[in-house]
Amino acid sequence: MRTSACLFLWMGLLLVGFAPARAQDPAADPPPTPSGGDPFTRFALPDDWQATFWAGPGVKELLTLDAKGLAALVPAQAGFRYCKCPACDAPETDDPLAWSLAKPDVVTCRKCGVSVPNDAFPAKVPPAPGKPPVVPKESIEVLPRLVHHYPFHTVDPIKQDYPDERLYLSARRDYEARTFFAKAALYAAVRYNQSGRGVRNAPLARLASVLILRFARVYPTYATHLDQPGLPKILQPADLAPPYRRGYQTAKWDWSGCLDVPLNLVIAYALIRDDPALIDAGRALDDPNPARTIERDLFRASARFTLRQPDEETEASLYAVRGVLAVGRLLGDAALMLEAGRRLDRFAE
What we know:
By secondary structure, the protein is an alpha+beta fold. 40% of the residues lie in helices and 10% in strands. The chain has 10 helices and 9 strands.
């Protein structure tokens, strides 16, 4: 394993204030906060990262949107990371299709500059002889009586990089948008937390609160999926029961199941959960108990999904454990921390 990866992961474990060899019995009270206070409140981002993010096109305008308008920007369907460019065939492993808040309906190829979906991609095909051509789509019943639709571009067989290659351009857009808005919630919460009391910018807390709550409401309906480079993409129900694919290849939030706990949102929530903005966000989005929704339907659910994955004591396992530890530390859940400690012990052995 690369040294940098090891350091990054162990620094993440220290962030949540957990000593794996001293895991607490789940029947006991939650462990006390380490000396120095809540570790999440000490989280910081480099100043230049923050400056670059807030200088992005359209980013500051997010602070002026009302709650429902902001929530509507968060994708309601799970996305796919791996998708090549349909115009120039830039490979999916290069992540060629970029997304911007300035052009939220499309992704743009970094190599050839094409923006898709457009009139040419995905290409329409005749569904049957004599029928007008339509964009093909895959439909998946993510939950009973709830169907999500995934349009795709059919790749010419001579251009396929692997059998049955399809380009889910809208799903790639949703993946990028989801990543951006989870990042936006974190950056808003960090900037809000760093401001002095009495001068804090209320729109920052509102932005973070609305985004986190919106994610908590759509996460339960995200399709589980196989999203690996060089393999056909597969969609499955949101509440899929184990067994899952080995190597964390059954995913829900991201492209890998080991990344299912949304750490950006865990940290953001820790920084704003006591702010009145969270109650206001719930009121605006018709949720009477936003904290319960976030903690139960997003954080506990993602930790549970992670723990149901086959544990193979690999580098990916450390990413999975890091997410579970973060949720356990955030919610004071000794059972989650105990199980994470057991997995770390097995890894160390």
